[in-house]
Amino acid sequence: MSAGQIAALIAAGAFVLLVLLLAIPLVKLGRTLDEATIAIRKAHENADPLLTGANDTITHVNTQLERVDGITANAQAVSGNVSALSSVFTATLGSPLVKTAAFSYGVSRAIRARRKAKTGAEGKHSRLRGRNGTS
User: According to the UniProt record, where is the region Disordered (predicted)?
Assistant: First the structure.
């Protein structure tokens, strides 16, 4: 064997060793891709029931929202009726009640002022008597 043949054998051996060393990561990468493919397949299979459940949930929520819309419309109608009723009450009874309350307040103030003036006048005379020393 000549030196060139020996060099060729060494180069061929090194090339085989290089191929073997590169084959190990490629095999591991192939296994990883297989596992990823299996995981994606399982996720795809499990997605259909999830989407069906989500559609059912959304349908149920829409039904409940329609009911809430009806309740809201009824509450709005009731508040409008209460507002109209309070306006009618204010127009028919509110003004006379306010006038009656104002009149009774004025009368009570006048009576208190008169009593105060009466007791104030008597109080002045009694104080004057006490200062002069005469009873």
Answer: 116-135
